[in-house]
Automatic annotation (TrEMBL):
Residue ranges occupied by any RNase H type-2 domain in the UniProt entry: 9-198
Source domain of life: Bacteria
Main localisation: cytoplasm
One Gene Ontology cellular component annotation held by this UniProt entry: cytoplasm
Cofactor binding note: Manganese or magnesium. Binds 1 divalent metal ion per monomer in the absence of substrate. May bind a second metal ion after substrate binding.
Gene: rnhB
Name of the molecule in the record: Ribonuclease HII
């Protein structure tokens, strides 16, 4: 059972989606849930079916005290690296909250202090706290929606299905068609990129 709060009322949870992808943005969600909020379905977005995530998203968005979602796109990922881009996406999502949180709960073990508000990093926090789980659902659903949209432009990579992750099908398409403007050029797109032809 996920806990509603960690220490304080008005806590914000934040999490990101798309960190390990070869294409598209890394997307972060931040959310403050009302005191006493409860939901039996809510869990880490990776543990939920697409149908459950899509059912939860409007419910979370309508019941939240405040929520925000932010994409950091491939060019910025390439210039500052994926870890910094993930943290930046979470900071920007927190910037977008209309209410100032009392405290920030962060999924994972890496974060940079957010101005004037204390935070705690919680490993596998999306399976422990409702606000982090809710942020993970928002990040995942908003990112999936974006990847489905750009799929229409480049259907041969099947981003509608693989969402930019390094599936065998996605890598085969890169081998055949090359990279698009949505690919992260700093990422090792194909396994053989590790070998040097000397």
């Amino acid at each position: 059972m996920l806990k509603n709060i960690y220490k304080y009322k008005n806590e914000a949870g934040t999490d990101e989606a798309g960190r390990g992808c070869l294409a598209g943005p890394v997307t972060a969600g931040a959310i403050i849930l009302p005191e006493g909020f409860a939901n039996d379905i809510l869990n880490d977005s990776k543990q939920l079916s697409k149908i459950k995530r899509e059912h939860l998203r409007p419910l979370l968005e309508s019941e939240a005290v405040s929520f925000s979602v932010c994409h950091v796109f491939q060019d910025e990922i390439d210039s500052i690296n994926i870890l910094n881009a993930s943290i930046l996406a979470m900071h920007r999502a927190l910037n977008g909250l209309s209410n100032t949180p009392s405290f920030i709960l962060v999924d994972g073990n890496r974060f940079k202090p957010y101005p004037s508000i204390s935070h705690e990093c919680i490993i596998k926090g999306d399976g422990k706290f409702m606000s982090i789980a809710a942020a993970s659902v928002l990040a995942k659903t908003h990112r999936d929606e974006y990847m489905s949209k750009i799929h229409e432009e480049f259907p041969m990579y099947n981003w509608k299905k693989n969402k930019g992750y390094p599936t065998k099908e996605h890598r085969e398409a890169i081998r055949k068609y090359g990279l698009t403007k949505y690919h992260r050029k700093s990422f090792r797109q194909l396994p053989e990129q590790l070998t040097l032809d000397i």
